[in-house]
Design a protein that fits this description.
Elements: H1 2-10, H2 18-21, H3 32-57, H4 67-99
Length: about 100
């Protein structure tokens, strides 16, 4: 009977050390809260993107940049803002998880 108990302990899914219990999260896995924050951030940035596209189609030109350059700059800036919002949100969530 003792042999069966030892076999069950060996097959147990519980790790032997606390370090082994801590798994590293995959690089591209994000929390649902981060997705929600990114959705709201993207919807807030949408009028800016639409304004830049409308301005270019209306013939609004700047002295230093052409209309296509302005559109590219606006899209890159929006992508960077989304990336930054996601990183900040994930950092705060993971910091809270480490405290618990």
């Amino acid at each position: 009977m003792e042999d069966g108990a030892k076999d069950n302990q060996a097959e147990s899914a519980e790790p032997a050390t606390p370090v082994a219990a801590k798994k590293k999260r995959p690089l591209f896995q994000i929390h649902l809260l981060t997705v929600i924050v990114l959705t709201f951030t993207a919807s807030a940035l949408l009028p800016i993107i639409m304004w830049s596209v409308d301005g270019i189609s209306d013939g609004l030109e700047r002295r230093c940049f052409s209309g296509a350059d302005i559109a590219i700059l606006v899209l890159v800036a929006c992508a960077l803002l989304l990336w930054l919002a996601g990183r900040i949100c994930e950092h705060l969530i993971r910091r809270r998880e480490r405290r618990l």
